[in-house]
Design a protein that fits this description.
Blueprint lengths: L8 H12 L4 H8 L3 H9 L6 H11 L3 H24 L1
Helix pairs in contact: 1-5, 2-3
């Protein structure tokens, strides 16, 4: 069997925000003005939104995608540094 894909934290946060606030992905796509496939890609972490799209998402549904991306990337970078430091010791 294939491995289960890893979904980035920012994508999980986006998906959970939509769920908790009663948005389905089709509604989000209509509100933001982009395709359902693109929104689905964001929720699975397969696509990363542009800054312009992040701002639209925040404006239309209230989710701060830029902060979620930043914090997720920072966590991944820090995790990578920690692993590298341990392996050098």
């Amino acid at each position: 069997m294939g491995e289960k894909p890893i979904i980035p934290d920012w994508a999980l946060e986006f998906k959970m925000f939509c769920f908790k606030n009663g948005f389905n992905l089709k509604e989000v796509s209509e509100l933001v003005g982009i395709s359902s496939a693109t929104i689905s890609g964001y929720s699975k972490g397969k696509k990363r939104p542009s800054v312009k799209t992040c701002k639209k998402i925040q404006e239309k549904i209230g989710f701060d995608m830029l902060t979620a991306l930043y914090l997720s990337d920072k966590k991944e970078i820090k995790g990578g540094e920690d692993e590298r430091n341990e392996s050098e010791i």
